[in-house]
Specification:
This protein is of the alpha+beta class. It contains six helices and three strands.
Length: 100
């Protein structure tokens, strides 16, 4: 059995389309700014905030607020638990689509 099969785990929280896209956007980077995620996902601030809160409440993402050029900014990153959950969810989707 390969490592992917051992870590495959469908995650209901991540599976929601916007949350899945958030995790997919964060997976290849160390962090992303809120505004970048909002624009990339083409959603309203309130919609993104709602989904980020759900991911934060489960420990899947971490939010850091900072000031740059006298303006408040927020950046978002996957936690280790979030990255593991995302990788496991993608592996589970691959198994499902492969007919396993």
């Amino acid at each position: 059995m390969n490592k992917q099969a051992n870590t495959a785990r469908f995650d209901e929280l991540i599976h929601a389309p916007i949350r899945l896209r958030i995790c997919a956007s964060l997976a290849p980077v160390q962090w992303a700014e809120f505004a970048h995620l909002r624009d990339a996902l083409n959603v309203a601030d309130s919609v993104l905030s709602k989904h980020l809160k759900q991911l934060t409440d489960t420990g899947y993402i971490q939010i850091e607020r900072f000031t740059k050029l006298s303006r408040s900014h927020m950046r978002v990153s996957l936690t280790r638990a979030g990255r593991d959950a995302y990788v496991g969810h993608v592996a589970a989707l691959r198994e499902i689509t492969a007919g396993e």
